[in-house]
Amino acid sequence: MTFRSDDRGVTVQVGTILLFATLVVAMSLYQATAIPSQNQTVEFRHNERVQGQMQDVRNAIVRTGATGTGQPTSVTLGTQYPGHVLFVNPPPASGSLRTAKLGSTTIEHLSATDSETRDYFDGGGHSFSTRALVYAPNYDQYANAPDTVYENTVVYNRGRDGNATLTDQQLVHGTRITLVTVNGSLSRTQSGTVSLDPHALSPSTTMTRTISVQSDGNDPVIRIPTTLGVAKWTRLLADQRYVQSVGSGADGTVAVTLKGRENGTNVTYDLRMAAVGVGSNTTETNATYITNVSPKTETVNGTTTLVAEVRDRYNNPVSGVTVTSSDGGRTETTNEQGRVRFEYEASEPGTETVTLSIDDNGAERERVSFRIETASGGTGSGGGGTYDVEWVDAAGLDCTHDANGYPTVCTLDRSATSTHTLTANVTYGGEPVTDTTVDFGLNRTGVVSTSSKEATTGDHGEVQVSIDDSSTGDVKLLAASGGDADSVVVHVVQSGAMPEIVYNGDAAATRGYRNSGPKSGVVFSVTNERPEGATLTDVHVEPHDSTIDALSDPSYGTGIYESELYVSAQRDGASDIGNGVSLPTTIDIDSDGQNLGPPFRQNPIIGGNNGTATFYLYQFERNGTPVEMANEPVDVTLTFENHDPVSFTLDANDGGNGGGGGEQTTAYPDAFNDGDGALEYGEDPSIPPSNPEGGLEGFGNLDVDSNDNQVAALREYYRHPDGFEMSIGVSVSGIESRNHHTLVLGDYRTSGGGSHEVSVTPVNENGDPLGGSYTLSESSTTTRRIDLPQAVVEYVNDNGTLYLVFEDRNSNQDERLRIDYLSVESSDD
């Protein structure tokens, strides 16, 4: 018997094997291409957030140096990749944050105007070592990610192609010089968040000092150790009128030369210095010199008080230092202001010198001498010095006066105004005493506060101090100088409701200049009911939803809806922060910002007598995506120079700009994908095409009609085996569902060596055409409106996004497309 062969099951088996093989190949391809592309996007957005956090670190260091109080902050060194069921991700990306050796900042040819301070700070070179703080990412895909560096009050990105600054400098501002050095050792490498606790090494107390300095006859020079380079520092200092030149110095420094004289006189600069510790192994500052506070020469007929102050090498007060008097070898310890007081009792007529000293009294700067002339013998009644101190004026207060017309009791009505200025006068033998220090004090706290603890008399022997009320009650305000003191009683009352700075309850979500997409901005206003203006310094922003993690405007410009914060008031102000800022955040308005100059880099002023200020916050993001802010609560705290902080919660309704109903709306590009190999602002490798070719320059210019002044350029690159190729993707998101969508290509023209033809094709998220391609071939500037077909309209209505691919293939010619703006207009008409 013979049997016939049976092959009926072979086809099914072969088909199954082929299907399985195809699935394996597809999954392998997805693992090799799509997963890395998605991870690169995650890494890019994380890097943008870290750049914002490094700006927060910079602000914390600068504020710590200014206040003597630590400002904790944090940096997220790494990031997590999204999970996949069937695919594999690398381990979480990590990063490192470390201090790096920088060198010493040197100040040359500046000498203190005060003679005792000049014993230490003379015209010779004074060097202060400092370090940089460097964040270095370790990504899996984003290979060209820059290091982000803080040094000398500046944050910048350090990449292979050069450096890009993210903040302005605070080293020189007019005649103000601010030196904040970093001391310590830090080295952390991890994928999580690292906390930083900058702490003040100088000032070692909460008291800081600014000294007046002038040229010693040569132009002053500040030598900065830096890796930023001369060109960048030249640009950072370009708007400083007292900077004469910026050039290269020895040992990798940049030499900043200041004006020594102007209009035939020496320029006086205000110098403030500080040292901030970061990490471990920090070095505390020590007492360096002692200077007088009370006059160095006095004529007394009884008892007088000698006051001196001990400072460190940064000119800041040092507490807890033992000071020895030559009068009997007595010792006292400096208080939190770095000051000591010695009572001197004259025993007989004549002249005596009393010297107060620190350490071993070996150097001139370690001692200060007081020359005391005793007019007559006896102990007297105390306090009878040469000077006569009197309160002479209290502008705007209702006062009673003594027989000489000097105020003795003054009434301050909190309901009318909270700030007033009082004037004291210092004389000797009836003549005004100039350039002497007057100390201010209060016999109790909690009623009023003074604008300063001391001031120096002017040409007429007068000195002023402002007081701000805190509560009702009586307090005695004292002014003391040269062994004499005077007091005035301030009687604080409240006759009616207190004028305040109030939030108007008008927060509204807004799209800014865009008429579609999520309302990712918030607008609100406040009113200043007080009669005097209020100077705004800081704005704290904290959404209740902690996943709303960034405030970042998408524009390269500066202004309303083009800056993260814009305040429109009697005097405007703005902060335009490179790559945005992580939330929650506190924005220091006149410091935080990228490349801002007047009139924006300034603290806004809200006018008095019901003056208003409108705040524009734009735009809120979650993981790099704009967030709909309608009904999203946001806590805001406003900090002022001359008013207590004001806190409130914004609950934005749906009252912002943007279309609805049958109105026409307009959406603009939000991302692109090209093949030039560099991950740039607005680039998203996850959008089609999957294999881009060519490059797009000036993406940020696509969202506004600039009358052909600022344009984007799409061009081919010679990187493809077949020669020149272009395949560039652009996405337009936030498109509202409507009956009609029109693609607008504004003020474009093509050029190049071939037919000058570039096609634009609407595609879905996978890069598949949705119906129809459109050829652009005009060599002269043209605006074209394309009514999108029904298949495209349905896709856009379902997804809210339009993907466009600009192509020129197989021409082997360097074609280019120059375009001013691109938009999608949507309506029901």
UniProtKB/TrEMBL annotation:
All residue ranges annotated as the Big-1 domain in the record = 289-371
Q: Which InterPro entries match?
A: Big_1_dom (IPR003344), Ig-like_fold (IPR013783), Invasin/intimin_cell_adhesion (IPR008964)
Query: Could you tell me the superkingdom of the organism this chain comes from?
Result: Archaea
The UniProt record lists the keyword ATP-binding: no
Family annotation (SUPFAM superfamilies) = Invasin/intimin cell-adhesion fragments (SSF49373)
Q: Where are the transmembrane segments?
A: 12-30
Q: Tell me which UniProt keywords the record has, alphabetically.
A: Membrane, Transmembrane, Transmembrane helix
Keyword Membrane, does the record have it?
Answer: yes
The protein's name is Big-1 domain-containing protein
